[in-house]
Amino acid sequence: MSTFPISDFRFPIGRATRPMPGVPTRGAAKPPGPAWALWRWATCALLCIAASGALAATNLVENGTFSKADQDKLPEGWYCRLADYMPKEQVNANGIKSYRYICGCGQDLGDVKPWCGLFCPKCKGFIGGEESGDWYAKNHERVSLDGGAVKFTLDKSTGENQGVRIFSHLIKVKRGWGYRLSFKTRTKGSIARVFVECFRYPDKVKSNVWEGAHDPALGQQAAIEKSYRGHVNCGSPADWQTFTKDLIAPKRYEFDFITVKLYAYMPGEAWFDDVVITPMTPSEVEEFRSKKQPKDDRFKYR
Ligand SMILES: [Zn+2]
Questions:
Q1: From 254's CA, which of 71, 242, 277, 300 has a CA 20 to 30 Å away?
Q2: How confident is the model at residue 71 (pLDDT cuts 50, 70, 90)?
Q3: From the CA of 252, how far away is ligand 1's center (Å)?
Q4: Ligand 1 centroid vs 133 CA: distance in angstroms?
């Protein structure tokens, strides 16, 4: 470890005191150091090797076939135990308003909005970065493995309110590339939707840090922000139906990380299987872009 000082990222210069474990903190606005550059270079090099060689068609989604279970009999590689938060307004003696972010389990997560990929230090749930309070505290109890697929079971209240959702591990991708999602689903009573939440490092490097557990893809633990979302409305197919979606963001919204979010609502059951994400070839990306001619500059592809 002495030759690769990644621990530098955890204690940015400019903080007088060591931050509390498990609380995102604002660091000094400090440019990335050489270790950051090395890390990014190594990650890019690995991605390039993987994408250019025989591994090009490898599924980037771990356990997308739901063939592996963890010790809780939940799908390995997927986050089923979720932790979300709500901002709690505080007013100081001078009438200045600020917020603290409180996990659904009651844990105070600090005064910096937690980003996707972190784990609550108390309930150990995965933080997807959305404000949903304690809606998903029992989410994992409604998820099971069933005949090599993942199954959601939604009672009346869950189905008519928050629904059930699980997240894949964060996947580090190459900014500006295109990715193709495919999966299959079937339902009984419920309605299925699949989202691909896409994130990136902020344009201006902020050194917000997190001392606690996090998705390994985050590496140096710098904050990420949501920049794009792919969305597939599947309806209620009674038999297995396969869906595909190309993930190519307009230039302004390009991304560095993705997580697949499987979601179902309305009382009943929903199954998902064979979730695959692969990089698109340059010609596939070019074909996609050539069909889009956005009038608004903000949505220009390149
Ligand atoms: Zn919690």
A1: 242
A2: very high
A3: 33
A4: 10
